[in-house]
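Posted in: Structural Biology > Protein-Ligand Complexes

Title: Requesting predicted complex, pyridoxal-5'-phosphate in pocket

I'd be grateful if someone could produce the 3D structure tokens for the following input. Sequence and ligand are given below.
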Amino acid sequence: MPNLPAPVTPPDRILMGPGPSDIAPRVLAAMAAPTVGHLDPYFLQVMNETQQMLRQVFRTENQLTMSVSGTGSAGMEACVVNLVEPGDRVVVCINGVFGGRMADVAARCGAEVTTIERPFGEVFTPEEVADVCKRVSPKVLGIVHAETSTGALQPLEDISRIVHDAGALLLVDCVTSLGGCPIEIDKWEIDAAYSGTQKCLSCPPGLAPVTFSERAVAAIDERTTKVASWYLDITMVRNYWSDSSRAYHHTAPINMNYGLHEALRIVLEEGLDARHARHRRNHLALRAGLEAMGVEYAVAEEQRLPMLNAVRIPEGVDDKAVRSQLLSDYGIEIGGGLGPLAGKTWRIGLMGEASTPRNVLLFLAALDACLKAQGHETSPGAGVAAANANYQIV
Ligand SMILES: Cc1ncc(COP(=O)(O)O)c(C=O)c1O
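-- Reply #1 --
Done. Output follows.
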């Protein structure tokens, strides 16, 4: 008998960090279904249905809507590498880690990248975007809708108008917003958007939903150079997703697609508006609880993400000790700060399946105990009581 490692037996966790979030049991069950071939008529039906459901969740009629194999970063790369040719002028708005990543990706595609920056936790004004568009006259402007690294929500409607008036394409990162708060691809005239499966869709990491407007497709069709990535070349991948061609490009991750199919069914069964309202209700209850415990948000009230609560670590409290205790004693995972916010903030996710009153109340009770262990005085039970009271009024 060879000396084998034990089978995988993951610990019981409640995923309340910046992602992945808790996975719906129905999604896991769907992923355990038998694998079929990537050109099997059954799988082609799953692909068609997934595209239709993605259009509903993105709120778009865009024909070119599908999932890219890979995590959210693959979605980012797919959008950038297909829209951008060497020498193109691209503006990227950076107010967190993921804007920075987008600028890096664009530079690797040979773009002439101009960045505008806001401190982590703040968002861009339409005037700032107008100013850079006037100065640079870009082909593409990229911006993050929900900055998971900071907890800030970027309003997009005015920015979209400005970007189009400047003749540019608007590229939006919706990795964390899709399925958790409104994102309107058609109404806001977003030209290209990408997301990830592991946040508010509550499916494991592994696929990146993307959508491209007709304007974006025209820009891709007008390219004079080959797309710099073979794997993410939408001009080839789209032939696999199109009913009329179905040309093999790469072997689709079949069971991940089963998972996304079920995750989208769950989102649409709940209804987008109801789902957004649930995320907001649990966010407000958590907020009431945290405030009652004297824990402050790191983002201005009107710009807070409902699915990712970034809060300041109270003075004198050990960041890592609290996160370790939450994990070891209560099975709760939350995130630490990223970049300049490392050691200064916690990121408490209430995404998809994890956005529940049970998790809000359990987390507040657990945090109470962890803060006490740190010698930080809070009035015992105040957080849970305030959250409970909030659930009565909202
Ligand atoms: C806003 C945002 N963009 C992009 C990404 C990258 O996604 P992934 O880590 O799935 O590659 C993340 C992941 O946390 C994200 O939150």
